[in-house]
Specification:
heterodimer, A: mainly alpha, B: 99 residues, mainly alpha
Chain lengths: 305, 99
């Protein structure tokens, strides 16, 4: 690798050898848009060459019109249904005590029972923790489907995929990523750890961290992000976090349902180590979400880790 | 504040219509990301900042990136393998028929 100054001078003098160190820059024969246009033309010729169907109302144009008419009708019906639902809702911020007794219970005794200042975190990770476990598993299943569909096994295909559109040597992206990646990571971890005190929580924090890892992977190449999350780390983190979530929540449901004494205390509301199980569960969900988002990006981009 | 909300909601509707009417897929993806960004601001105005954070990270960031990566893969031309070229023609054919 040449020094930055030398590379800059080479760029300034328009030195033809300046791209020598960058083996990732693949040669593209001619602009992509023209290639697409050529393909389209070829295709159109092939379609025109095909014999026309005997029955006229089964032609392509007829069905295209039918599809668009049905699409518009479906959209209109859907819009009417959704708007009529919205019209039934109470106005924003209005309190109507006939809606649901659960709402009152959550608002009145949520802080005392869960120890979470952020009432949303208290609901989704304590009262309704079972739903959140299901959501985490849905994410995990979605990732597994992506793995099944997009994973590439033979190394030959992989080399082919790496040829194109590698931004790992883009200086502007690298320098701006250098400044923004730490901020993104710290913000994500803050949102994750303060899920029971302030807005946010496992899913939001995990999504921010996952997006940060994707940025790292785009700017600095797969080696940088691979050092952070390898396939082994990914599998271990996902399975351990989900298993921990299941075990911890089973314990709290078991003790709660049988009126047993639980060793997990809600703690003092407002402190970072409070809220009982909410903080560890947030961390578990956040790790699963971050790994899932990065894994999906990896599968879409390369087809492997 | 009310006018600001109305402007945001109108932009939201405009974005939603533009996404479905745009011919070029790249433009559609970028407008979709704009939609998510406006939606994040709307969530914050509706006093649910946690949804705003998630919308900004997932809607405007990750799903847009996934769509862009997919677009790159579809438009990519194969230089040496005959089989994948055939595949690509098939894909382009599907795209043409739906249009």
């Amino acid at each position: 690798m040449k020094l930055d100054k030398e590379r800059f001078n080479a760029w300034l003098n328009d030195d033809p050898d300046r791209l020598n160190g960058m083996e990732e820059m693949a040669e593209i024969p001619y602009p992509p848009r023209e290639r697409i246009k050529e393909k389209r033309q070829e295709l159109q010729e092939r379609i025109d060459a095909q014999p026309v169907g005997q029955i006229s109302f089964l032609s392509r144009k007829f069905w295209q019109r039918v599809y668009s008419v049905f699409a518009v009708i479906c959209c209109a019906v859907m819009t009417v249904v959704l708007l009529s639902t919205v019209a039934e809702l109470p106005r924003f911020g209005e309190y109507r005590d006939t809606i649901n007794e659960l709402t009152e219970r959550y608002i009145v005794s949520g802080l005392k029972e869960t120890g979470a200042v952020n009432i949303v975190a208290g609901i989704i990770l304590d009262y309704r923790a079972f739903d959140t476990l299901g959501e985490s598993f849905v994410l995990f299943c979605a990732l597994n489907c992506v793995l099944i569909l997009l994973r590439i096994d033979s190394s030959d295909d992989v080399r082919h995929h790496e040829l194109y559109f590698n931004l790992a040597h883009d200086d502007i992206l690298r320098k701006s990523a250098l400044f923004s990646i730490p901020i993104v990571f710290v913000y994500g971890i803050y949102v994750l750890l303060n899920g029971h005190l302030s807005p946010g929580g496992g899913f939001s924090g995990g999504a921010v961290i996952g997006a940060g890892i994707i940025l790292l992977s785009i700017a600095y190449g797969e080696r940088a992000s691979g050092a952070l999350i390898s396939e082994k780390v990914f599998k271990t983190v996902c399975c351990c976090a989900l298993a921990f979530y299941g075990v911890a929540k089973s314990y709290s449901f078991f003790t709660g349902a049988n009126h047993l004494h639980s060793i997990i205390k809600p703690g003092t509301p407002g402190e970072i180590l409070s809220g009982g199980l909410i903080l560890p569960l947030n961390i578990a969900v956040g790790m699963v979400v971050a790994c899932t988002i990065y894994g999906m990006y990896r599968m879409f981009k390369k087809g492997r880790f | 504040m009310e006018t600001f909300k109305i402007i945001l909601l109108l932009m939201l509707i405009g974005c939603a219509i533009c996404v479905s009417l745009t011919k070029r897929l790249l433009t559609a993806v970028i407008i979709f990301m704009c939609y998510s960004l406006i939606m994040a601001v709307v969530w914050i105005l509706l006093e649910s900042p946690d949804l705003g954070i998630t919308e900004a990270a997932v809607g405007a960031g990750v799903s847009g990136i996934l769509l862009l990566v997919t677009l790159k893969k579809i438009n990519k031309t194969e230089t040496d393998s005959e089989e994948s070229e055939e595949e690509q023609k098939k894909k382009a054919g599907d795209g043409d028929e739906t249009r």
